[in-house]
Amino acid sequence: MNSEEFVKSIIDVVRDASISDSIEDLVDPPGRKPSSEDLELSNWFLHLNDKEKEIVVNIIRRAVDTSIFGFFTVLDGVRPIVDSDKGILELYYRENDNNHFLNTNQEEYLHDIFNRKIENDNTRL
Length: 125
What we know:
This protein is mainly alpha-helical. The protein contains four helices and two strands.
């Protein structure tokens, strides 16, 4: 697995699932006995017109994308998580006996790959 494949898998497994799960929870709250907050949000969402629902979906998509982008900037070392710059984060994918270094900035940052892959992506779901 290389950096491109890693980001693509995060888009498929985390991003798209988070967006669709969030929307599904608004349409049909999860669980046998949904919380009062989940029911309230669902009731509010279901009473919106189609344009308003589309706006909510876009807000969800942007929030998920912003979160993933921010996490990738941390992995890339461009957004510090501690006050000192003495350490670095290294992300490897181990396959059999091979280690694949995923967050090397010698090629392209993970957050840049992510932005490129989701660019103009308002109709995936």
